[in-house]
Write a structure and sequence with these properties.
The protein is α/β, with parallel strands linked by helices. 39% of the residues lie in helices and 14% in strands. Helix 5 links the parallel strand 5 (125-129) and strand 6 (188-194).
Length: 346
């Protein structure tokens, strides 16, 4: 499948999101007409960063109102589109009801968007924003993988409604997407599986968990130390390019781990200390695992989650995306520092 006609629009769902904002920006600068779905057209404050991007780009931005939980609400926005980027999905770690707050919007939203794709003959490719959370649930899962590394062939089987429900929602949503894709042959599905996303978005006032984490590293919340947690990280700008290449590389297929580096909270903190050590109360050591397991429940962290993640490495193989999508990654240190610089302005 080759898509070269920039006269035909593309659709980005959840356009006001952290990742989606950079995807929209990339598409507009490439000259595309972008149909952007948002929850409320009247929320002009949320639309303002996208309008600013559009004002300085050759492409055209058109907003549509759509709701993940309403069937057919994406159909109007999808008319004449050749590619659909489905990025809209809840990302929050503090929920009251995992089923209604996470799973239902993720799964039903994916189903509703792809049902609209099935009704829109112009769509040739769907790029789905999934997550490495659909590949693994806990770091301890690495011990049971071939070669002790996470790859695109692996699925998260350890998460559930009661344990790591966010990860569980990503598994179910991506599996629903593959199920719908496999039932038809007109369009194809390419899935992007990013690790923790960092780096400056198009707005300094985002609401992603990524913003919360980096704020906690600099505002004194973690000044006594960080959990011994290994993670993958990727810059939101590199992730946007990965989405673009997933859409417009004819040979792209299947899943792609998009992760710049296998890192840890302590490594991120030490990168920040080099620049901001005299400015912010940035942590410089790891907290003991036994202590976190002891007091974790007081702060809403379940002991099972802590036991199965703290002290265990995260190792993911990002070579498929580098080879097939031509992804190159900027240094993590640049990403985290530029992120903090943006947050300082927010």
């Amino acid at each position: 499948m080759i898509i070269t006609d920039k006269q035909k629009p593309v659709l980005v769902t959840g356009a006001t999101g952290y990742v989606a904002g950079r995807v929209v920006e990339k598409l507009l600068h490439e000259g595309f007409t972008v149909h952007a779905t948002v929850r409320k057209l009247t929320d002009t404050q949320k639309l303002e960063p996208l309008n600013k991007v559009a004002a300085n780009a050759p492409g055209k931005l058109v907003f549509f109102e759509a709701d993940l939980l309403k069937p057919d609400s994406f159909t109007a926005a999808m008319q004449d589109c050749q590619v659909v980027f489905h990025t809209a999905s809840p990302f929050t770690l503090s929920v009251k009801n995992a089923q209604s707050d996470l799973v239902d919007p993720a799964v039903n939203g994916t189903r509703n968007v792809l049902n609209s794709v099935n009704q829109t003959n112009t769509v040739k490719r769907v790029v789905l924003t999934s997550s490495c959370a659909a590949i693994y649930g806990d770091n301890i899962d690495l011990q049971n993988t071939p070669g002790k590394v996470f790859t695109e062939d692996i699925w998260n089987t350890s998460s559930s409604l009661t344990h790591q429900p966010y990860s569980y929602s990503k598994v179910l949503a991506e599996k629903e997407a593959w199920k719908i894709d496999n039932a038809q042959s007109r369009w194809d599905l390419v899935v992007v599986n990013p690790s923790l996303v960092i780096g400056p978005g198009i707005s300094a006032t985002g609401t992603s968990e990524s913003y919360n984490l980096v704020k906690q590293l600099t505002d004194g919340t973690m000044k006594s130390g960080v959990p011994d947690l290994s993670i993958g990280v990727v810059d939101v700008r590199d992730l946007a390019i990965a989405h673009y290449n997933a859409a417009f590389t004819p040979e792209a297929k299947g899943r792609y781990i998009v992760s710049a580096a296998n890192s840890s909270l302590l490594e991120l903190a030490l990168m920040l200390r080099e620049k901001y050590g005299n400015t912010f109360p940035i942590p410089k050591k790891k907290l003991p695992k036994f202590l976190l397991i002891l007091i974790g429940p007081l702060f809403g962290f379940k002991r099972k989650m802590l036991k199965q993640n703290l002290g265990f490495p995260f190792i993911a193989d990002n070579s498929k995306g580098i080879k097939e999508l031509g992804i190159s990654y900027r240094p993590v240190k640049d990403s985290i520092i530029e992120f903090v610089e943006q947050l300082k302005k927010g």
